[in-house]
Amino acid sequence: MAQILSSLPGTFYMKPAPDQDPYKVKGDSVEVGDTIALVEVMKTFVEIKAESAGTFARYVAEDGKPVTAGAVLAELED
Amino acid sequence: MLKIINPGLSTSIQDLGRPGYFHLGIPMSGAMDRFALRAANMLVGNPEDAAGLEAVFMGPEIEFTQDAIVAVTGADLPAKIDGDIREPWTSFEVRKGQVLKFDYLKGGARAYIAISGGIATEPNLGSRATYPIGALGGIDGRALIAGDTVPVGDQGSTARAGRRIADDLRRGPGTPARLRVLPGLYWHRLTEAAGQGFFDDEWTVAAEADRMGYRFKGGRKLEFVEREQPFGAGADPSNIVDGCYSYGSIQVPGGTEPIVLHRDAVSGGGYFTLGAIISADMDLIGQLQPHTPVKFEKVDMPTALAARADRKAMLQRMRQELG
User: Fold this and answer.
1) Minimal C-alpha gap between A63 and chain B (Å)
2) What is the pLDDT of residue A68?
3) Does the pLDDT at position B67 exceed 80?
4) Which residue of B has its CA nearest to A5?
5) Where in chain A are the domains?
């Protein structure tokens, strides 16, 4: 199972904006370079992109909560 | 020359700064962790005040168009050449055409990348340090962007790979981070209980933490001694008639979230400052990630000066050991 990791510490968001749907839901196909989540730090929202392709399984990190660099944000099915 | 393939989150050219203009509103800028930048420069045989790169939270991706000796200090941000990790706080060789990349951040906040010869951009007001708000230093006064080419000077004859800084000289903050504070001119504005509470409470680094200032949250709201606000001061009890701010001074707008002014801070304004972080601990702030727990510790002037001397002695030992 491939994991998508946070490249930096900050606050994790699974949606592009509070009133929008999450970037991915279970069963969505994921291509390399797809945006999976946002991490906010120093007033900047950084897009976290998939580095491998697959089928989206689940978000692991909690929306709106702090994450560390290297934390698992989401998982893909093989 | 360095070709910036990817700048990371925010990577800027920094040296030890641009002192001498703060009274005109131009901050000192320069590395937030100056101890780490000095160390990186020593490792690659540069003068300690040479310009290097400060990378925040994420490493850049850089192609070298010439051979160089490189060292990465400060945050634990593992450097990689052709996929192989290079030891931190240790000089290593990069050959022409190779690409320097970084792994995920493992600790700290800012890595310093020194390149033998130093970065050779045009200085402004005596420094290459980037101050984006004033468009001074760096390249066009801004942080690096993809596609930039960064000039590098001629390397000194003492540059060589495999130099290493001893583990006990790799200074960084603990957990919780302990920041020592010297109470200042406006300390009397706080009630005794509020002053005590500031040091008793555990604070955490807020998301709003950058080169201008580091904000802290989570402690109790500060109560002020009642007074009629003097002419020229704002209505909030945390306001004063405009005054000077020092590097490291701690303002608390509205009494809620302390802000420590850092290298790119404004030089004056209308908030009281309860004191200042001692100079020896300013480097440590540069290595704090958001959400890091912090305790402020009250010290007196002799303690602050002793801490300054200790930091100097560590640098002196580093110089001797690297020979």
Assistant:
1) 16
2) 87
3) yes
4) B104
5) 3-77
Q: How is chain B split into domains, by residue range?
A: 2-168, 177-312
Residue B171: count other Cβ atoms within 10 Å of its Cβ.
Answer: 21
Using CA atoms, how far apart are residues B21 and B237, in angstroms rounded to an integer?
Answer: 30
What mean pLDDT comes out for the span B69-94? Answer: 97
CATH code assigned to B177-312: 2.40.100.10
- Residue A7 to residue A73: CA distance in whole angstroms: 10
Q: Which residue has the tokens 């929306």?
A: A63
- Please write down the HEC assignment for all residues of B47-98: CCCCCEEEEECCCCEEEECCCEEEEEEEEECCEEECCEEECCCECEEECCCC
**Which contiguous run of DSSP H or E holds residue A40?**
strand A35-41
CATH C-level class of A3-77: mainly beta
A11: contact with B, CB 8 A cutoff: yes
Q: Which of B9, B209, B210 is closest, CB to CB, to A8?
A: B9
Q: Does A8 touch chain B (CB under 8 A)?
A: yes
| Among A12-21, A36-45, B184-193, B273-282, the least confident range | A36-45
Size of interface A-B (CB pairs under 8 A): 49
A69 at B interface, C-beta within 8 A = yes
- Nearest CA to CA, how far is A38 from chain B (Å)? 13
Complex ipTM: 0.79
